[in-house]
Structures are given as C-alpha cells and as structure tokens.
Design goal:
The chain has a two-stranded antiparallel ribbon with strand order 1-2. By secondary structure, it is mostly helical. The chain has 2 domains: 68 residues, Arc Repressor Mutant, subunit A; 138 residues, GntR ligand-binding domain-like (Four Helix Bundle (Hemerythrin (Met), subunit A), Up-down Bundle). The longest helix has 25 residues.
C-alpha cells in the first residue's frame, strides 16, 4: 500500500515538481499569491529555471488538491471560496484539527514536544519582529508539527491538504502586527493543553482555536 510520501514520478523530475509545488503552496499560505490570482507559467519557468513540463505537472497536482482551480484559456488561478464554502471547509477542518490535537496529546513524544516548542518560538520571533511573511510560514509549520505529533501520516496529510486549501483566505486576517502577536500568543494555551496529555482538553482547545480562526477569516474576506 502506498504511503503519503510515495511518488511514481522519476526521482529527478519528481523532486523538481515537488519543489515547485511546495514553493507555490507556501506563496499562497503567506499571502504572496491572492485568492483568484492567475498563475503565470512563463514566470514560473524563469523562477525555477525549468521547462514548462514540470511547471504544468506541479500546477496539475495543485489543481487536484483544490489549492488551484482551472481558469480561462487553459490557465489556472488560486482557489477562492464563497462564505458558505469557507464555512463548509472550516467545519471539516474543525473536526480534523481537533482530532489531531487529541491524538497528539495521547501520543506526545519528547521529539514532538521539542518540535512544537521550536515552531512556537519561530512564531513568536516573527510576530515580535512584525515580519508578516515569516509569521505566516511559521504559523503553518506550527500546525504541521501538531499533525506530525499524531504519528499518523495519513491523518497529517488530510489535515495539511485542508489547511493548504484555505491558505489564501486565512492570510488576509493577518493585517497588522497586533494580529500576528495575538495569533502567536493564542498558541500558548493550545500548547499547554496538548502537553498536559489531557486529550479531551486538547481537542476542545483546538476547536476553540479554529472557531476563532474561522471568525477572523470570514471578517477578512
């Protein structure tokens, strides 16, 4: 059975495709690419120094994940959602993220604890510096460390895909330095609940965290 890390693409081209895919995903999560924005294939070939083949393969993979959607004249653009669609996606994210926090609390290892603490330190440093791009990247990594702490790569993959779909919409809620600091400080309570190894409390804490994120995302969009 294949695992989330398996790939059928040749190693050379496959690694290039994954590099482009990851870079675009990070750009969207960091707000560098806005919802609805058209992706320029030519600029991507210049940016990564490759032909259009790996670029198009990376774009196709992102379309399949729902991060990008088909646009006009065979082009693609960053996915954008109505308020109703965002509500539906966040409803699913509530359940998945809460489950990740619950399982992470049950299975917390020393390594997972250190990774979560390091990710939070990066969030605080970026927030205190007022570096929005760095904070958005660190914030994504913070949640990814919680997903990995479940010890279940399939659950982590599902949670990550939902998070990536909403990257452009969530990025809009971080408009000021106060927004960054408020978000970073909100992680502290969540971390305490996960580290307490009280799985029910960790789940409830993540639900509260995601409810706040949803309200702020709707207000920004």
């Amino acid at each position: 059975m294949a695992t989330p890390s398996d790939t059928s693409a040749p190693s050379g081209r496959g690694s290039t495709v994954r590099r482009i895919e990851q870079a675009l995903t990070e750009d969207i999560s960091a707000g560098a690419l806005a919802a609805g924005e058209r992706i320029d294939e030519v600029k991507l070939t210049e940016r990564f120094g490759v032909s259009r083949t790996p670029v198009r393969e990376a774009l196709s993979r992102l379309v399949a994940q729902g991060i990008l959607i088909p646009g006009e004249k065979r082009g693609v653009r960053v996915a954008e959602y109505t308020r109703a669609q965002l509500a539906q996606i966040f409803e699913a994210m509530h359940e998945i993220e809460a489950a990740c926090a619950r399982i992470a609390a049950q299975r917390l290892t020393l390594l997972a604890r250190v990774e979560i603490e390091a990710a939070q330190a990066d969030c605080m440093a970026a927030a205190e510096a007022g570096d929005r791009a760095a904070y958005l990247k660190a914030n994504e990594q913070f949640h990814l460390t919680i997903y990995r702490a479940t010890g279940n790569p399939y659950m982590a993959e599902i949670a990550t895909e939902f998070r990536q779909r909403t990257g452009a919409a969530r990025a809009k809620k971080f408009a000021t330095n106060e927004d960054l600091l408020s978000s970073a400080h909100s992680h502290a309570d969540l971390i305490s609940l996960i580290f307490s190894e009280d799985s029910a409390a960790a789940s409830d804490g993540m639900r509260a965290h995601m409810a706040r994120s949803f309200k702020e995302t709707l207000a920004a969009n």
